[in-house]
Design a protein that fits this description.
mainly alpha
């Protein structure tokens, strides 16, 4: 009987790291999702329509996920702002 009570107490300690990992994942994934959506909208609204450049960048962002959004944010967006001013 004492062993059963000890076992129930151990379950609570297992829950704490699992909850911490879940909380960390939520706190990290929500901003990355928002960044991804923001970069898709930014690219669709502000990228010039000449050639396939807009389509290619949207595909990069969509297919590469948040990594594609970061690539667009740091590689293309500053250059576009210099070229087009938007």
């Amino acid at each position: 009987m004492e062993l059963a009570l000890l076992h129930r107490g151990a379950e609570g300690w297992f829950f704490l790291p699992v909850f911490a990992i879940w909380l960390f994942a939520c706190c990290l994934s929500i901003p990355l999702l928002l960044l991804w959506v923001w970069m898709i909208v930014d690219c669709a609204k502000n990228e010039k329509n000449e050639g396939n450049e807009k389509i290619v960048w949207i595909l990069v962002i969509v297919l590469a996920g948040w990594i594609g959004a970061l690539i667009y944010l740091f590689a293309r967006r500053p250059a576009r702002k210099r070229e087009l001013g938007r």
